[in-house]
Amino acid sequence: MKKVSIISFFVVITSLIFVLFINDQMLPNSEFTNETQPSPKAENNQTEKTEPPPIKEPKEVTTYASLMAVGDILIHARVYNVAAIGSQQYDFKPMLENVKPFLEKGDITIANQETMIGGSALGVSTYPRFNSPYEVGNALKDAGVDLVTIANNHTLDRGEKAIMNALDHWDSIGMAYTGSYRSEEDRSDLRLLEKNGIEFSFLSYTYGTNGIPVPESKPYLVNLIDADQIKTEVEKAKKLSDVVVLSLHFGNEYERLPNEQQKFLANEAASAGADIIIGHHPHVLQPPEWITWPDGKKTFVIYSLGNFLSGQRGNYKDIGGIVKIGVQKVVKGEQETITVQDPAFLPTWVDRSYLIHPMYQLKDKQNHYNEIKQHMSQWMPEIEFIESP
Ligand SMILES: [Zn+2]
């Protein structure tokens, strides 16, 4: 033991002497360097004192959130009759049960509620003048939907009363809505939803209202598409939020590719600052594409999300889907960069009992599923197809 202690002591002392020696060797050398090659800083001590401290690189903070969206929810009599559970009572939750695990995965999920939920007391009705039960809204809320877009060609079907009932119900269940409003004041209140430090704003417009005139004194009852107005409101929303999500109810029914007007409007909105553009109305899926800005920034546009839940059948009308888009926000000092990325899609199919199914799960629909995948990736080969919740 004693021997070990002595050795340890010797090792420590040797190391200490070595360190001191090295320091001794270094110091005169440094001094020598300074003396023979004085740096400009050393020469002028005053300058050194007044010079500002080196600027610290601001910390970079990155956050991420995903947005999910579904297309048209059109409650035909065929659909509400199946959902009926008693006199003026309905349950639409089973219809959404298979897609609920997917919808819940979005940080923010939005749906296009095409038919107004004016409630059964007003009398439910089907095409051409729809009025849907409140329970449709309850089922969407239960499935994880956070906001509904309600500027559609069926918004005015049953008049102001149905709209006000619907807005009351959305408010009562804590569901945000955009595109149709109670008043000018309600309309000017931009809808915002925040997730992971990323502020999303939501705007919604329709091409028309099936010939039913919008009351001149109440333009807030439904937002109509007007390129200049959309641009102004997108620009305003961009100043108040990180990400502008624009819903456009437009295009030709049953056409599987967007028309020139859709492309024009999407480009105008993108140039005004829209980050994500969600289209609907054609009742069939139209593919997504990127609109690239001159500075390289990209806007995601999907021209039509098809029918998510409706009584329409065949010729692609029973196919819809859930689109998922990621948003990355990078903040460095005063600078903020928003990037829309990671597009993904889940094709869905409505069966004859009006249950919505993820298409990948349907063994007898694989050919159809593959065709839809090809259709939806034709302008965006990198789009991912969701095959698990
Ligand atoms: Zn429509």
UniProtKB/TrEMBL annotation:
InterPro entries: Capsule_synth_CapA, CW_Biosynth-Accessory, Metallo-depent_PP-like
Region of interest (Disordered), residue spans: 32-58
Keywords assigned by UniProt, alphabetized: Membrane, Transmembrane, Transmembrane helix
Pfam families: PGA_cap (PF09587)
SUPFAM superfamilies in the record: Metallo-dependent phosphatases
Compositional bias segments (type: Basic and acidic residues): 46-58
Transmembrane segments: 6-23
Residue intervals of the Capsule synthesis protein CapA domain: 66-312
Polar residues biased stretches: 32-45
Domain of life of the source: Bacteria
Family, as annotated: Belongs to the CapA family.
Protein name: CapA family protein
Organism the protein comes from: Pseudalkalibacillus berkeleyi
